[in-house]
Each structure stands twice: as structure tokens, then as C-alpha cells.
Amino acid sequence: MRSSRSGRIAACTALALAAGMILSGPVSADEKPVSAPKAERPNVNDRATGVRPKASAPKAKTDAQKKQQPGTKAAANPVPALFDVDGDGWQDILYRGLSNASYLKTFNDAQDPEYYVEGAGSGEDFKDVIEAGDLNRDGRPEILTLSVTGKLSLLSADKYGAYRTGWSGNGWNIYNKVTGVGDVTGDGNADLLARTPAGALYLYPGNGTAGSGSPYGSRISLGGGWGMYSQIVGGGDFNDDGKYDLLAATPAGVLYVYPGTGRTSGVFGNRIKSSTGWNMYNQLQVLTATQGGSWLVGRDPSGKMWSYGSNGAGGFADRTAMGTNWQYTNLFAGQGGVPAHGRSDLLARTSGGAVFAYFGRMNGGFEDRQQVAATGEVPVNQVKMAVASSFGAENTSNWLFSGGGALYSNGTLVGRGWDIYNSLVGVGDVDGDGNGDLLARDKSNVLWLYRSYGNGYQFRDRVRLGAGWGIYNKLFGAGDVTGDGRADLLARGTDGTLWAYPGNGSAGFGDRVKIGTGWNGLTKLVATGDITGDGRTDLVGVDSAGQAFMYKATGLTGLNTFKDRTSLGGGWNAYVELQ
Questions:
Q1: I want to staple 377 with a disulfide (CB 3.0 to 4.6 A). Which of 213, 290, 373, 458 is the partner?
Q2: How far apart (Å, rounded) are the C-alpha atoms in residues 85 and 332?
């Protein structure tokens, strides 16, 4: 819900007064919840530009390839585009902007129109959209939305929107990636792939229906080892044999092509190493033209889109510029990376008690700051604050303010007695139910887990995770660091060593992994969620001179978890606290 500037200031004042009351005396049992300050989503033009990709000739061709131009001549049996809502034979792009509005790019409109995507139910936001193809062969495509709680819902799409067909299934949060791949079994029905965080890949064969019943049959195991890939995309034919292939890229940027066989047994052939350097793109997509031709499309960190025509042998022609302004897109239908959900922002407080909010773009930067509390409204010595990844279905963070032991989440009273804790950390979903949870370290240095009910302010009974957490001077996190889609906890030792505790998806964390040293050189350090568009959480640190730096997660582990830092500019000593 959006509030006015005056409403935010009044709310902040109420919170400060409430904190003062708590500190000076008991609080009435019938005290009304306090509305915390909240930022408006930035008013930016988040529609992207773009032209249809054009293939260029490859650097070298075989004798067979010399007879056709890459991506322009149809294969013997060209594969259909998975998402063509206007029926022109070209793949369309469905994307969601920073405003949380969805748009449709058909390449035929002067400006991409807003596109309605029906939700799965009250309060059920979607964290991913999957291009499913034409599941019932009626000439219209279907898409799938995946909610944060693991509900997969089938929608029928036209040029104006996508609407529920009546089928939805729960339990899909056991996977960190679900992707449509077209008909890879050769029976005429579009199929689905799903991968677990452990790297097991499953095929869900289409059954030719798209109504109230499940559109897929029982899953079929395709084996393990698929966790090595940071991006998986399907829906195109890259060797011009009329069969859908699968593309997979490692965090180091190595791209492999898995040629489709068109059979249920041995769905894909042995992988072919295609090329390297694909980690220059934070998201990959596949575009296909039904009359023949497939392209691999990548978005670079600046927000530019590039297309690569297939050479028909698993390789690609030189890239061609395709569009700009994609840095405001936080979700593509059919994107290759693991989706992020729940946070991409930063709160900053001055010594005078003013609070500013920064919304992240998907290029490693922030929109201009918004003042959400004036000087004196959130006094440093009375009100503590923290930012948590979403406690519910909304694609937003929860702002926590506490004073005198009373804790508020986005303005709603969570409860009292929270002054027993010296650190509150909302890393995201710890127990695997899709809702973000809360970690709390008490003054005896015991770490506790509060599992969220999913409504943004209520938690189950706390669970003890262990003692000895006083060896760290900073506990923080905001989603996935390791690339497996699970929320991870970061901890900085008193000696400046940085550690990662990988989430295990079942209300706990694995053994810690050393990911860096020398981090005590930063006076402020915060996890912002994904601000680089690859689905992994990034870090912002400030040194003693007030220079801010961004640390991008790579999807790798150990000492390679983060890339070398990039500067965000100076002047950050104006703040005494970042959250």
C-alpha cells in the first residue's frame, strides 16, 4: 500500500513517540499498531526499447551450413515459439518493471502496453513466470506463475493479459528453477523442466490439456549434476534439426548446448561446449521465430539487450544490439537465472534521526534517495531499525523499528520483549515454506529462528539455532548468495573475516564457509538483496572516508563468492547506519 508523504512523516513521529513512551513507562495493552514510514516505488519509465533480433553471418561455416544463413532459414520442421500472443510467428517478451507493472513487448507497438497477469489468489504474488508453450494445441500460448509459497498456476494468454484456467499445484518450492522447454519428448505436447537446489533435474511431460486438471504427467528424473549451472533456458532449436534444445551456462560464463533428441528416453544428447564469456550477462533468454530461427538474448549490467543468432551447430554469430532501458526489469518470463524475491533496497539513517530509502536498479545502482522520515523522527538513541526480506508474499522488504522492547514490522506491532536481542536479521526464507523468516541473537549470543506465518508480522515459537554467535560483530543477509536459490546468512568475525552459512532449506544452515578477509576496513556493511539483476544478493560497504562500494555475488563459493568491488561514490558518511 502506498502512503502520502505527510502520512509517512506522521507515522514516523508516532513511532518515535511510542518508543519514548515505552522507554519511560508501561504501554497500554490496547495500543494501536504504529504505521512505519514507507517509500514510494520510484516514478521511472521502466518500459524497455527493443527491435527484433537480426542474425549475422558466423565467422566460419561448415559445407552444410554454407547453404543457409544462421537464424534466417527454417529448419526442416521449425519449432514453434513458446510465447507468441499476437500470432505473428515471433516470440514476444513479457517482463515486470521496477514499478511492479508487467509489460508486453511484441516489437509491433510504439510503446509496450501494460499486461495483466492474474494472481494465484489473495495476497499471492508471483516470483517467477514460465513460458509454457501451447499446452492444449488451441493456437494460444499458456504461461505458469510460481508463487513464493510454491504454488504453480496455469494461465491462458492473449495479447492483453493472462488469466487463470483453474489449475494450480502446490509443492513446487522444492525446486530452485522451473522452465518451459517446448516439446522435447516428440509427442506434440510442450514439456516442463524443474531443478532442485541439490542439482537434480526432472522432466514433467505435457499431456495436452490446459484446463482445471494438471497439464503434466508424473515427473521423470533426468539425473543430477545440474547445480553447476547458474542459468538454464529452453524453447529454441540451435542445431536446426527441428527439435528443442536446452542451453545451460555456468557462473564462470561457460555455455553448453544440450541437443534435443525428441525422445522420452534420453531427452537430451551429450552436451556440447559452445563458448565462454556469458557471465557478462545477468540474464539470458531464448527467442524463437515459428517460421524458423532461434536466438540467445542477454542483458548486460548497463541494461542493454543483445541477441546472438544461431549458426545451426550449437554456436552463435556475432552479437547484435537489441534494445535499452532493461535495467528497470526485475523479472523476465522465461529468464535463465534463479529468481530473487523480497528485497532490493537500502535504508540509511542520519545521526539526527532522518531516514532515507534507496531503491535498487538491476544494474548495480540505486534510484535517487527518498526521505521517509525527517530529522528527529527516528532518533538513533531511542529507535532501532532493521530491514528484512519479505515476511510474506509481497515483492518488497519489511522495515523493522523497535523501541523499549516493542517491535513493529511495516507499522504493525509484532510484540514486546524484543529488547533481549542485540541483532535482528531477516535473510529471507529459512525454513523452505516461501515466507521470509527472522533471525535474532540474544545478549547471551544465542541465535534464534522465528518462522513467519506469511502475513508480515506474526511468527511461530522461536527455535534455538545455537550459541557462540558473539564471535561476530555483524550478522546480515538478504536472500541467496551461493546461487542455489536458498537464503544464506553472512557473518563478519571480529578479526574481519567474512563467513557464509548456506541455507539448507529446512530451518537451518550448513557449515560455515570462509569467503573473505579484511572486511573490518568497512565501517558499514549491508546486504541489499539483488541489485544487479542476476537473482543473487549483493553487498554495499562504506569505508572510513565515506566511499561506498558494491560487491556483486558471482554464484561461486569460497573466496570467489564476490567480485572485486565497484565504487558507488562518496558522501556516505552522512549516515550513521545502513540497513
A1: 373
A2: 16
Are 432 and 505 in contact by the 8 Å Cβ rule? The answer is: yes
> Per residue in 105-137, pLDDT tens?
999 999 999 999 998 766 678 999 999 999 999
Q: Which amino acid is at 316?
A: F
| pLDDT at 179 (0 to 100) | 98
CA distance 394 to 388: 12
As a whole number of angstroms, the distance between CA 544 and CA 524 comes to 9
Sort residue 471 into left (φ over 0), alpha (ψ -120 to 50) or beta: alpha
DSSP 197: T
Q: Scanning the structure block, which residue is given the C-alpha cell 527454417?
A: 74
pLDDT digit string, tens, across residues 71-98: 334 445 789 999 999 999 999 999 999 9
Q: How far apart are the first and last CA of the chain?
A: 21
Q: Determine how β-strand 447-450 pairs with β-strand 463-466.
A: antiparallel
Locus of grid cell 516442463: 192
What per-residue confidence (pLDDT) applies to 11?
40
Which residue, 102, 87, 204, is CA-closest to 154? 204
* Residue among 551, 553, 511, 556 at smallest CA distance from 536: 553
CA geometry: angle at 177 spanning 227 and 346, to 5°? 100
Residue identified by cell 511468527 is 459
DSSP per residue over 18-54, as a string? HHHHHHHSPPPTTPPPPPPP-PPPP----PPP-----
CB distance 40 to 358 below 8 Å:
no
Q: Count the Cβ atoms, other than its own, within 10 Å of residue 68.
A: 16
Convert 463-483 to b/e letters by CB count within 10 Å (16 or more is b).
Answer: eebeeebeebebbbbbbbbbb
Q: Compute the distance between CA of residue 466 and CA of residue 445 in angstroms, rounded to an integer.
A: 9
The answer to whether the CB of 410 falls within 8 A of the CB of 394 is: no
DSSP state, residue 114: B
Query: Which residue type occupies 398?
Result: N
Contact 551, 540 (CB under 8 A): yes
pLDDT digit string (tens) for 242-277?
999 999 999 999 999 999 999 988 999 999 999 999
Tell me the three-class secondary structure of 415-454, residue by residue.
Answer: ECCHHHEEEEEEEECCCCCCCCEEEEEECCCCEEEECECC
- Is 9 buried (19+), middle (13-18) or exposed (0-12) by CB count in 10 A? middle
Q: What is the pTM of this model?
A: 0.90
